[in-house]
Design brief:
alpha/beta, Rossmann fold, 8-stranded mixed β-sheet, about 15% strand
């Protein structure tokens, strides 16, 4: 078993009352430090002048001084503790508290009874920054039906209220991935890891260092963010200001607001995974999906990293977009068009890949339409049939674009997962 430290108290200082978070005071603080470059001061001054001040509501106040432990000796014990934490501390958005608790808590899906053949296979799925285990449920269902034991965890600070990410440390995130991967290895013969966005960074870093991991499924992995140089300021800014962005919390699957601490932890995951890919690469099978129009990442760099650092011949990258990528000359890369006018889809978003069109909340006919898409100055249509769907920030005259929150190629994704996972015939982790 991994020796994951038991955390008695989270030590991150919480001296961050909005009353004390004046951009002017923060800038004066920097000017008082000897040797600080004037350019850095200028950038931080500009950054802080636009920082958001949250409303006086539960979503923007931490639950307490510490997060729950994640190092229980069984996954069932971890589930119980974490679910109770979510149920007790969540700032609920709807009247259906049970549904919100379910979607924001860790879960396990057992393999279908008639689908298990040969060795026992398991996968641990990890959500992204601000997201929840609910992001991984559609992927989990198809894998459980195919004979997998599937578990999905909750990254500490998530699932309750955006302000709880102020309580998280980076070793909380890496620790829960490591501990739960080790627990999964006790129950199956072959361990895979899967991750969306930031979760993709965390599982890739772990898998590179642990050869017993058989392979990876990476959905919009957050390897190469846009404006990484600006993101690098997050660790400093997180000690001066709490909030990068404050939005209305109306989505039961994710936080719409972002703390500077969460941004700093994401940046640490970026640094780690980039260094490990450059130094060691990944030699076991992997599936990567990426949208050409991802508003969060640099897809071209992800494509380049795949060709250079994911060396297994059975690995695959699925590119959602209309750009000609044949120049890559990597036969392991396939492209699916993202402009689908018959479905009123202009391009694919960062998040769309992991959701089935049948998802009852964010699917093609789901109950939630994500209007937070960079078009706050436009009036949304009254009827669903008049919406178009896209990545964040895409605009076109005469059309209102909501976020694309499902994958029209979800069946094709299922086939890609099967192709890559069935290709593995090398070493695997034998249950202890």
């Amino acid at each position: 078993m991994l020796n994951v430290p038991h955390r008695l108290l989270n030590k991150r200082p919480l001296n961050r009352s909005p009353l004390n978070q004046s951009p002017l005071n923060c800038c004066l603080f920097f000017r008082s430090l000897p040797g600080v470059l004037s350019a850095l001061i200028a950038v931080l001054s500009l950054l802080l002048s636009g920082c958001a001040t949250p409303p006086d509501s539960a979503s923007f106040k931490p639950s307490g001084e510490q997060l729950p432990d994640y190092d229980q000796p069984t996954f069932a014990g971890y589930q119980t503790v974490t679910r109770q934490w979510v149920k007790t501390h969540r700032a609920f958005i709807t009247a259906n508290h049970e549904r919100e608790t379910d979607l924001n808590s860790p879960f396990e899906m057992q393999p279908a009874a008639d689908s298990v053949q040969g060795k026992r296979r398991g996968i641990l799925l990890v959500h992204g920054l601000g997201d929840s285990p609910g992001y991984m449920r559609d992927i989990a269902k198809i894998m459980a039906a195919d004979g997998w034991l599937v578990r999905s965890i909750l990254l500490p600070g998530h699932g309750t209220r955006p302000a709880d990410t102020l309580l998280a440390h980076y070793d909380d995130w890496t620790g829960v991935v490591a501990h739960q991967a080790e627990l999964l290895s006790e129950d199956v013969d072959e361990v895979w890891l899967g991750g969306f966005s930031t979760g993709g960074n965390l599982v890739t870093s772990y898998a590179i260092e642990h050869k017993e991991v058989a392979g990876l499924l990476l959905f919009s992995p957050g390897f190469y963010p846009i404006s990484q140089s600006l993101l690098a300021l997050s660790p400093v800014v997180s000690y001066l200001w709490n909030w990068v962005d404050v939005d209305a919390e109306d989505n039961i699957l994710r936080y719409e607001s972002l703390t500077t601490n969460a941004s700093a932890l994401y940046y640490q995951s970026v640094k780690d995974v980039q260094a490990l890919l450059e130094e060691k690469g990944f030699d076991r099978p992997a599936l990567i999906t990426i949208s050409q129009d991802d508003s969060v990442l640099q897809p071209d760099k992800t494509l380049q990293a795949f060709s250079q650092h994911f060396t297994n011949p059975s690995s695959r990258l699925v590119w959602y977009g209309d750009e000609d990528i044949s120049a890559t000359a990597d036969q392991r890369v396939s492209r699916l068009p993202s402009y689908l006018p018959q479905q009123r889809i202009s391009n694919f978003s960062h998040m769309s890949v992991v959701f089935s069109p049948a998802n009852p909340y964010v699917g093609e006919d789901g109950s939630y339409i994500m209007l937070n898409n960079g078009q706050q100055d436009a009036v949304p249509p009254q009827q669903r049939k008049d919406f178009w769907f896209s990545a964040w920030g895409f605009r076109e005259d005469g059309k209102y674009h909501a976020r694309l929150t499902w994958n029209p190629y979800f069946t094709e994704l299922e086939h890609s997962i099967s192709e890559v996972t069935e290709s593995h015939s090398g070493s695997h982790l034998v249950a202890q």
